[in-house]
């Protein structure tokens, strides 16, 4: 699932391509929206909210999308070739006067009244890349269940919005706790949330994500994520990997058995 920094970049790309443009056509390829006509409406802006995208249109409408595990938006000049996947995976096409945006494999695609956006995103916690970022509120939500595994709590968008699988593993490593350690084991809450905020901020403008400070050497940009059986960059112990979560939504998690502690 894309992290908050990827969604932030996607919103910027949609803004650059369509903000201020009048829609020549819009093809929303889900049954309940198949007959909706958005032609003539101006695209006002696209805002990221955690892992959600809100494309606001004139007339008080908002197109709400979510990338899920495999979704993406591609922006291309009108008339150019679509290159994000086969045509049957296209869920939305927004065509402006010069640019077009094609949404692939979008699991969430709905049209809302702009005044009702909170019905879609009001449940989210403070957004790590949003103007509303509030570490105090994020920590209050995280500690509402002090015995909950830290990795699980970080991934819950109701606590803080923007952390995905990559940052879950990396943040647990950086605070030296296993993903299964309880939230109550976090020794320095301020540091955890400062790290989360800083990592997303410094990576939002990068195509290649880095948490170690090393962006050039292959295999050294991230501390543990994706490094199964490779030596830990800090201590040399083999990195471990497991699939966690409900059977229908298993997610990979990585950790160092020597550097991290606090859980089974």
TrEMBL record:
<keyword id="KW-0234">DNA repair</keyword>
<dbReference type="InterPro" id="IPR015886">
    <property type="entry name" value="H2TH_FPG"/>
</dbReference>
<keyword id="KW-0227">DNA damage</keyword>
<keyword id="KW-0511">Multifunctional enzyme</keyword>
<dbReference type="InterPro" id="IPR044090">
    <property type="entry name" value="Nei2_N"/>
</dbReference>
<dbReference type="InterPro" id="IPR015887">
    <property type="entry name" value="DNA_glyclase_Znf_dom_DNA_BS"/>
</dbReference>
<dbReference type="GO" id="GO:0006284">
    <property type="term" value="P:base-excision repair"/>
</dbReference>
<dbReference type="GO" id="GO:0008270">
    <property type="term" value="F:zinc ion binding"/>
</dbReference>
<keyword id="KW-0862">Zinc</keyword>
<keyword id="KW-0479">Metal-binding</keyword>
<keyword id="KW-0238">DNA-binding</keyword>
<feature type="domain" description="FPG-type">
    <location>
        <begin position="223"/>
        <end position="261"/>
    </location>
</feature>
<keyword id="KW-0456">Lyase</keyword>
<protein>
    <recommendedName>
        <fullName>DNA-(apurinic or apyrimidinic site) lyase</fullName>
        <ecNumber>4.2.99.18</ecNumber>
    </recommendedName>
</protein>
<feature type="domain" description="Formamidopyrimidine-DNA glycosylase catalytic">
    <location>
        <begin position="2"/>
        <end position="96"/>
    </location>
</feature>
<dbReference type="GO" id="GO:0003684">
    <property type="term" value="F:damaged DNA binding"/>
</dbReference>
<dbReference type="InterPro" id="IPR010979">
    <property type="entry name" value="Ribosomal_uS13-like_H2TH"/>
</dbReference>
<dbReference type="Pfam" id="PF01149">
    <property type="entry name" value="Fapy_DNA_glyco"/>
</dbReference>
<dbReference type="InterPro" id="IPR012319">
    <property type="entry name" value="FPG_cat"/>
</dbReference>
<dbReference type="InterPro" id="IPR035937">
    <property type="entry name" value="FPG_N"/>
</dbReference>
<keyword id="KW-0378">Hydrolase</keyword>
<dbReference type="GO" id="GO:0140078">
    <property type="term" value="F:class I DNA-(apurinic or apyrimidinic site) endonuclease activity"/>
</dbReference>
<dbReference type="InterPro" id="IPR000214">
    <property type="entry name" value="Znf_DNA_glyclase/AP_lyase"/>
</dbReference>
<comment type="similarity">
    <text>Belongs to the FPG family.</text>
</comment>
<keyword id="KW-0863">Zinc-finger</keyword>
<dbReference type="GO" id="GO:0000703">
    <property type="term" value="F:oxidized pyrimidine nucleobase lesion DNA N-glycosylase activity"/>
</dbReference>
<dbReference type="Pfam" id="PF06831">
    <property type="entry name" value="H2TH"/>
</dbReference>
<keyword id="KW-0326">Glycosidase</keyword>
């Amino acid at each position: 699932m894309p992290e908050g920094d990827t969604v932030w970049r996607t919103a910027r790309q949609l803004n650059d391509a369509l903000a201020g443009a009048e829609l020549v056509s819009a093809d929303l390829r889900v049954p309940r929206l198949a007959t909706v006509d958005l032609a003539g409406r101006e695209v006002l802006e696209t805002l990221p909210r955690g892992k959600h995208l809100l494309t606001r249109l004139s007339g008080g409408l908002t197109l709400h999308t979510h990338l899920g595990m495999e979704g993406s938006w591609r922006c291309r000049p009108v008339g150019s070739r679509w290159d994000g996947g086969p045509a049957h995976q296209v869920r939305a096409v927004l065509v402006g006067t010069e640019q077009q945006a094609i949404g692939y494999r979008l699991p969430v695609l709905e049209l809302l009244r702009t005044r009702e956006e909170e019905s879609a995103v009001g449940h989210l916690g403070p957004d790590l890349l949003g103007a509303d970022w509030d570490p105090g509120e994020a920590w209050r939500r995280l500690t509402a269940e002090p015995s909950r595994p830290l990795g699980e709590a970080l991934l819950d968008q109701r606590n803080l919005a923007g952390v995905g699988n990559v940052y879950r593993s990396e943040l647990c490593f950086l605070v030296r706790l296993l993903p299964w350690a309880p939230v109550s084991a976090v020794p320095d809450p301020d540091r955890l949330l400062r790290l989360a905020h800083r990592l997303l901020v410094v990576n939002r403008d990068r195509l290649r994500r880095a948490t170690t400070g090393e962006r050039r050497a292959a295999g050294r940009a991230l501390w543990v994520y994706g490094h199964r059986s490779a030596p830990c960059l800090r201590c040399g112990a083999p990195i471990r990997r497991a699939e966690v979560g409900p059977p229908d939504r298993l997610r990979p998690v990585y950790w160092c058995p020597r550097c991290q502690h606090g859980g089974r």
